[in-house]
Amino acid sequence: MPTTISIVVAFVGLFFSILCKADGGVPTKGFEHLALTPPRGWNSYNSFSWIVSEKEFLDNAKFVSEHLLKFGYEYVVVDFLWYRKLEPDASVWSSGHDVIDQWGRPVPDPGRWPSSRDGRGFARVAEQVHAMGLKFGIHVMRGISTAAVQANTPILGAKGSPDTKSGRPWLAADIAVPGTECKWMTCCFMGIDASSEGGRAFVKSLYDQYASWGVDFIKHDCVFGVPDLRISEIELVSKSIAEAGRPMVYSLSPGVQATPEIGSKVSNMANMYRVTADDWDTWSDLETHFDVARDFAAAGMIGAPSERGRSWPDLDMLPLGWLTDPGAPVGPHRWCNLSPAEQHTQVSLWAMAKSPLMYGGDLRAIDNATLSLITNPWILDINAHSVDNLELQSTPSHTSSKSSRFGLSDCKDEIPRRWSLRSVRHSQDANQVCWTSTASSERRWRKGEELPLKCLHWTPFASGSQVANTSSRMGFIASPPELHGCLAPVVLGISNTEVQQPSMQNVECSSEEPNQLWHLTAEGRLRNEHTGLCAIVVEEGERIWVARHSSDQVYYMAFFNLGSTATHMAVGIDTVIRRFVPSTKIIDVSSGSNPHRRVMLADNTDLICKAFDVWNQHDLGVVGNSVGALVEGHGVAVYILTCTTSL
Predict the structure, then answer these.
(1) Rounded CA separation 201/159 (Å)
(2) Is 542 exposed, middle or buried, given 0-12, 13-18 or 19+ CB atoms closer than 10 A?
(3) Taking Cα atoms as reference points, which of 561, 583, 584 lies closest to residue 573?
(4) pLDDT single digits (tens) 528-543
(5) In terms of domain of life, where is this protein from (predicted)?
(6) How many whole angstroms from its chain centre is CA 480?
(7) How far apart are CA 85 and CA 524, in angstroms?
(8) Which residues contact 18 (CB under 8 A, 6 or more apart)?
(9) Residue spans of alpha helices (H) in 108-196
(10) pLDDT 10s digits, 607-647
(11) When comparing pLDDT for 171 and 6, which is higher?
């Protein structure tokens, strides 16, 4: 009998080992319970950029502890450059201001973080955070700092020598790889040779130190997305965190041009990974998240099993409330630019896509409306406990699934277009021109080639010996990456009428081609000097997301109106239920002018469904064939559908 039991136990162990590997790998011991639901918390970036101080951070942590912890917000994260001195010449893009220790590792700026002056780094801050019942996180950059390379600091714990003849110890310059600078901060960080003894030892020393400080969350930047993908460093960091012995949620950033294919390479090593560039409080930023969220959901990436518990595609922080500006050397000074409807849309998409919820505004100034927005219990339940989340690919009575595209107007309308120049932190394109308004003209135009909405690279125009000014209002617009070249409109159609058809050519940028030159006017219009027409963004389309609870008879529906005017949106109850329970039967029992369909389970039991309006907190009672609403422009309606076999 003992022998039989041993064989059975061994077989079961082998079975579960194979099963775990098929599902994404055996969880690392001590890490298997990490991020089982999308992490929630507060991050300092949207409100303080890089200049947050110890007091400001702890004040926000206190608010999280007292008001948000009960809603699942448990992480408080210091975002980037906590080691940079806040002095006159310091900025996001300047070198020579970073504080490092004798081993080339970053340590907190003692001017902003006075508790670090005893040489214990963030340990005292972490102790205070933990005493509040919270978990402490920090942002770190890829590779090694140029400050360490220039000082050529020794590498702690590195065995052997990079030079067998001299036998000298490993130094920072031995592990740094020139030409691998972070694309959005080339002055200050570069990649390392993760395969070398010195590179492995340096990363191990970093995460051993972070563990000794009491860090619970790592946001690792400039390692993910197309421009800066560093799989070897992600693998090394994931391993080093495990070896450090302290469970830490591992987050990757920035996610520029991320795809599910790229995400699949890291989901087994990280708990969350950004799938977009930085998100700020503009509709143009928010709108770009819909396609990305759809693609990662369709690929089955939401909550995928990993060696570290679960992994979650991350749509970025929530830039709500009291904010600063990207890269600004000042703290919060303005309110969120998103309208109330757009704010509800953002939180709803983050919930339906099960993105981590990291609030970005200064909590010391949060208003009741915003607090209610991020603590809505039904929205939070969807974010944590819904399953099988996806975007339906078609919506009843509507044919367009495109959210936006470029078009041309005659520049005669009275509504300002609000194009603007922008410097982007997480992009190799330092200067971009972005659409930041969604007001639409009453004039009509024929649709030309459909180009997806996004900020585009802006090349300032210089005439003759004139030096190009990065803030120049004259310049060239690069095509989206998949098209290459520059955008140059050619107008076809009926002359001297309001009906015009733009055709965007993609050619090599040249000052010799007058139809490529654009003028950004003081009113925010983007005028093509050759055609006399203005670039606009044509918006239309609706998105319907659905999900279900772990109980098969509770369903969630979110109607997103990406257009600027109100529209009626609806979905059939049978369409939703059969998406998750294919065996559901639909029986047409219409009579005369009263259309009706019965929804039945496989055993012929009728389903009776009640609907609840989440944002209006209104019980709609028993519903018939469909659920729908008049959804305002850029707005959302979210419903919970609870179906039972009896009232």
Answers:
(1) 8
(2) buried
(3) 584
(4) 877 777 776 655 578 9
(5) Eukaryota
(6) 20
(7) 36
(8) none
(9) 123-131, 146-151, 172-175
(10) 889 999 999 999 999 987 789 899 999 999 999 999 988 65
(11) 171
Beta partners for residue 387, in sequence order: 548
Q: Which residue has the tokens 């939703």?
A: 576
Q: Which residues contact 582 (CB under 8 A, 6 or more apart)?
A: none
Distance from the first to the final alpha carbon of the chain? 53
272 touches 496 (CB < 8 A)? no
Whether residue 528 contacts residue 518, with contact meaning beta carbons closer than 8 Å, is answered with: yes
Distance between CA 307 and CA 26 in Å, rounded?
A: 5
Q: How far apart are CA 276 and CA 316, in angstroms?
A: 7
Short-list 324, 373, 305, 304, CA closest to 344: 373
User: Alpha-carbon distance 221 to 37, whole Å?
Assistant: 22
What H or E segment, with its residue span, contains residue 55?
helix 54-63
- CA–CA separation, 156 and 364 (whole Å): 40
Bridge-based pairing state of the strands 309-314 and 272-274: parallel
pLDDT tens, residue by residue, 191-208: 999 999 999 999 999 999
CB atoms within 10 A of CB 177: 15
Residues 6+ apart with CB under 8 A from 473: 519, 520, 521
Distance CA 253, CA 229 (A): 10
Give residue-wise pLDDT tens across range 235-245: 999 999 999 99
Nearest alpha-carbon partner for 75 in 317, 345, 336: 317
Tokens 């926000």 belong to 60
Under 8 Å between Cβ of 148 and 172 = yes
Residue 71 DSSP SS3: helix
